[in-house]
Write a structure and sequence with these properties.
The protein is 48% helix and 17% strand. 41% of the residues are buried. By secondary structure, it is an alpha/beta fold.
């Protein structure tokens, strides 16, 4: 009887031990799976202008509509790519104040900020260019920055919100850009890729990577670029920007540039 009792006792203890080990193994496995999730590469897409701010208009083409269509297409492409999360500053025809666009990116701890625009000048001007925040020593990009920044005049209490910033005063832009050198190298890398993919996807003139002072790029703590996809003031290029084919090519170029940048520079953290 004693032998049977000891045997039964040992058998019961062994079974309990096996159950405990199995439970621990399952818990560890579950923990590994649960904790193995990585931070996604967060991209904030900013469709410029919107609402009462039409942006540039030329030849019947409206910037705010074109950039929204392209931005949404970029987002659809990126959302299909593994490990990428897309956040939009706007997805409809509404005006988002400039002072709110940057903080949206900071609040979601984004990895890059990409602002999409169209340019306008003379009917001879054409081509695509990408801007980073920096000092425009030549002054050639002052006009572009002024036009993009003048949207603040449509905002309520803009004098208070922007602390006396005047888009029409060059010294305001210089003072703004001197404080925004952080992430400049990474921004240039991203901008270079955008321009490279533009060249691959279309025959539009490559206007290169430039520096200028844009309010929408201030106070953003990550690599950030502002893309001018072409000139609505140019009849031929405006038609390309407004066409389904043109928007497809532009969206593909920007999305593929972002994906390539992620592959080369993003290190996911657990």
């Amino acid at each position: 009887i004693l032998k049977i009792s000891v045997y039964t006792y040992m058998k019961t203890k062994l079974a309990s031990l096996l159950v405990l080990l199995l439970t621990c193994a399952l818990f560890v496995s579950f923990s590994v799976i649960k904790n193995d999730t990585q931070k996604p590469f967060i991209v904030v897409l900013d469709a410029g202008h919107g609402g009462k701010d039409s942006g540039n208009i030329g030849n019947g083409f409206v910037e705010k509509d074109i950039v929204l269509d392209v931005t949404l297409q970029i987002g659809k492409i990126l959302e299909k790519a593994p490990g990428i999360k897309v956040v939009y500053t706007r997805k409809t025809d509404v005006l988002i104040d400039l002072y709110r666009r940057g903080p949206i990116a900071n609040e979601v701890d984004a990895d890059i900020f990409v602002s999409i625009h169209c340019d306008a000048f003379t009917n001879q001007a054409y081509g695509v260019g990408t801007f980073v925040m920096g000092v425009d020593k030549s002054g050639k990009n002052l006009n572009t920055a002024k036009k993009e920044n003048e949207v603040i005049f449509l905002e309520d209490n803009y004098e208070e919100r922007y602390a006396g910033f005047d888009p029409n005063r060059p010294e305001s832009l210089i003072g703004l850009t001197l404080m925004q050198e952080e992430y400049l190298d990474q921004s240039i890398e991203l901008a270079d890729k955008v321009q490279s993919f533009f060249t691959k996807k279309s025959k539009n003139k490559n206007r290169g990577v430039k520096q200028a002072g844009f309010l929408v790029l201030r106070q953003i703590t990550m690599p950030r670029v502002l893309i001018e996809m072409g000139f609505v003031s140019n009849k031929q290029e405006g038609a390309f920007l407004n066409s389904e084919t043109g928007q497809d090519k532009l969206a593909e170029a920007i999305a593929e540039a972002i994906i390539q940048y992620k592959k080369e520079f993003f290190v996911a953290t657990k």
